Amino acid sequence: ADPLRTLAAAKGKFIGTAVATSPLANETAYRTIAAQEFNQVTAENAMKWDATEPSDNQYNFTGADQVVAFAQANNQIVHGHTLVWHSQTPSWVQSLSATAMKAAMLDHIATVVGHFANNSAVQSWDVVNEVFDESGGYRTSFWYNTLGSSFIADAFRAARAADPDAKLCINDYNVEGINAKSTAMYNLVSTLKSQGVPIDCVGFQSHLATQYGFPGQVTENVARFAALGVQVRFTELDVRIVLPADASEITTQNQYYTNIINACLASTACPGVTIWGFTDKYSWVPDTFPSEGQALIYDAGYNAKADYTAIATAL
Ligand code: XIL
């Protein structure tokens, strides 16, 4: 059977995976599947601030360069993740004054985006990540508390200056359907566009869970963002299950994977879908959601699950 990347390419889409540097370096089965099945990769952690600039102005691209080299060797495109986030950002950033924090942010964006600006594989960035709370207000992160919401437009302008060709995204979770949070994101993107701020895409992380149901009005939500003139990407798809998983939960999980693929296929504004890893051997879910798991499309022994077949069938 054709690999997922062949099926996606035939539809003009990418199908991607997050990759972690340790198994990428150490496990042949991990490398083989990542290379054969996907035509896009996102670094799961290697491009985050704590990895790329652990101390002020001490940049380290070891892991990030490994991911990009792997992608280039396998004819894959790379989505940069992520420049400005409240998590996985060193404490030295968090305690800066407003003036110094803004300067650190602008320097970080210029340096990290600049490092890859001439690399044809790296085509897009999550410029800001998770800036909203669940009710649609701004998250009261150290960024917002210190700089106010202006850090968002400043970050996009800095990213555009560092790589005029990259697609620049805002990314968040629980924004796949229509709700208070996704409406706040819609209003922000609309405002940024009207102000001439360079923003090209929104990322719906899509960390789904069978026990919470499938988000409502995903197709309509994609359409309203598309009407603003931005791409819509499904950037971190996984579907976790409360363990032990029963047959009906697995069927639901298969259906959620199918639904997301179909939502992307249904819109010319959607360039592709990225799964947040591929094997249950390496998934953030059990570490983050105790007693949940089996969220990805291969089991821990690298056997394709029914979710893989669901995606292949949808594509
Ligand atoms: C997660 C990684 O998967 C974990 O390995 C890490 O320990 C924490 O971050 N939203 C995001 C991703 O934007 O960067 C997060 O990735 C998952 C939630």
Count of individual beta strands: 10
The CATH superfamily appears as: Glycosidases
Strand order of the largest sheet: 1-2-3-4-5-6-8-9
Q: What value does the average pLDDT take?
A: 98
C-alpha geometry: globular
Helix content: 40-55%
The structural class is alpha/beta
Q: Poorly predicted ranges (pLDDT <50, ≥5 residues)?
A: none
The biggest sheet, with number of strands, parallel, antiparallel or mixed sense and barrel status, is: 8 strands, parallel, barrel
Task: Characterize the structure shown.
This protein is of the alpha/beta class. It has one domain: Glycosidases (TIM Barrel), CATH 3.20.20.80. The protein is about 45% helix and about 15% strand. The protein has 14 helices and ten strands. It has an eight-stranded parallel beta barrel, surrounded by six helices. Helix 12 links the parallel strand 8 and strand 9. The protein starts with a helix and ends with a helix. The model has no long low-confidence stretch (mean pLDDT about 100). It binds (3S,4R)-3-hydroxy-2-oxopiperidin-4-yl beta-D-xylopyranoside (XIL). (3S,4R)-3-hydroxy-2-oxopiperidin-4-yl beta-D-xylopyranoside binds next to loops. The site of (3S,4R)-3-hydroxy-2-oxopiperidin-4-yl beta-D-xylopyranoside has 6 residues, from loops.
